[in-house]
Structure formats: structure tokens, C-alpha cells
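Hi there,

I know you've been waiting on this one. I reran it after we fixed the sequence typo, so this is the corrected version. Both the input and the resulting structure follow.
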Amino acid sequence: MQDFNYHTHTYRCGHASGSDEEYILAAIKAGYKTLGFADHAPYKDYPLPSSHMDISMFDEYVDSISILKEKYKDQIDIKVGLESEYYKANHDERVMLHDRLDYLILGQHFLDPEPSVSFFKNNSEEEILEYGRLVCEALDTGLFMYLAHPDVFMSKQENFTKACVDVARMIASKCVDLDIPVELNVHNVRKGKHLISNKEEYFYPNKSFWTIMSEYPIKVLLGVDAHKPEDLLDFDAIEKSLNEVSDLNLNFITKPLI
């Protein structure tokens, strides 16, 4: 099992539960050597209490993880980061946050911060292509350590369309060029498979997407995307995710990124 996880949320995002310390204790029990917290990044001008932490919580978040990092330093290596979308308008804000953190990961859930329309519905071909363009533009900034759930745009999609193919290739090419890893995210496995283009697949990790990714020399890591402490102990979800791509010969990272 991969002994590091950089995708861990906290109660501050409004849709996760458990204390910071409970996540750390669960990670130690699970055998992780490195645990990175990457709660949903705050937005100064676009508060979304059920999706992101409020900007007023940021200092306390960093301080809390820093204290626990020292407390458990002999048992586990703790890192503090954020999972963030990218919009050109708030690039400077992301840079300022990055300077106080160990890392940022890119998790592009929305096309635009206002009105923050989610991808979790059937999207047009143009919306899917815009997702790909935003992701590539974000990665070009050099701010992000890796790309989380690159296939998140498949959430509640009924078909793997030409735009989906084009976006998969767009993302793969960009990540290879920049040497940026992509994440096989296990969170959605808990929701089971769905009928997509007449095949039973997870929304993500989506087999059709990862089949295309496997054609490229791209680095891959697992992301638990923990929203409660016990997610870090859910080895079944990890096994199912790995089984989904076991025939694709993906290049999994074996050492921590930081």
C-alpha cells in the first residue's frame, strides 16, 4: 500500500467531519508514514460554506496542523496544504496562500467562482473542454504539486464523449510536459458504479479516462480524499480503485513527493 496520502480534508470545508487529531491517529493506525492535509481552499470574495473553508479559518487551520505536526513528529510526517481550484482572477490570492503552506493540489470542481456551477451534472462538450483548458492553464502556473481527480468532470456524465477523450489527452500531455503527477482518487468508489456509454464504470476513477492516460508516461499516485477519519482505514476502497486500473500498467509513484 502507498504509505503517504496528501488528500485529507477537515471539518472546516463544511462537508467533512472529525477533528484534525482524529485524522492523524487514523493515519497512524492505517500505517501511513506521511499525511498531508489539503482542505478546500478559502476564497476571499466567494464564500461557499458547504464547499470551502472560510478565509477567517485559514490561520487557525495552519496553526492547528502545525501544532499536531510537532506533537506526532516521532510517529508520522505531517504536511499542511490546500486543495484549490484555479481561476485567473484569483491567481495572486493562491500565491499568497501557497507561501504559508507545504503544497497546493489542483482540484478543479468549478468552471467559475461565481456562481460556482458544479461539474456534478451532465455537461456540454464546451464545458468539458473548458475544464481541460482551465486545468492546463493552472498547471502552467507551477503552483500545484499534483492534479487531483483529473476525471472529476465525469461525475454524473452519461457518456464518454469526444470532448472527454480530447480532455484526457490534453491533460496527459500537459502533465508529461511539466512532469506533474496525477491522482487516482478513491473517494467516489464508495458510491458504486454507474452506466456510462452502456458500460458499468465508476464516475471516477473512470476506466475509459485512465485507459487513455495509460498511453502516456505519466506519474500516478493514490489520493484517499478523506472526508472523515475512517476513510483513511478504508482499504477496500483503495483495493477496488487499484483493481479498476490493474490491467493498465500505470506508473505509480512509490516515494513521497515532499
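Quick highlight: The chain has a mean pLDDT of 93.

Best,
R. S.
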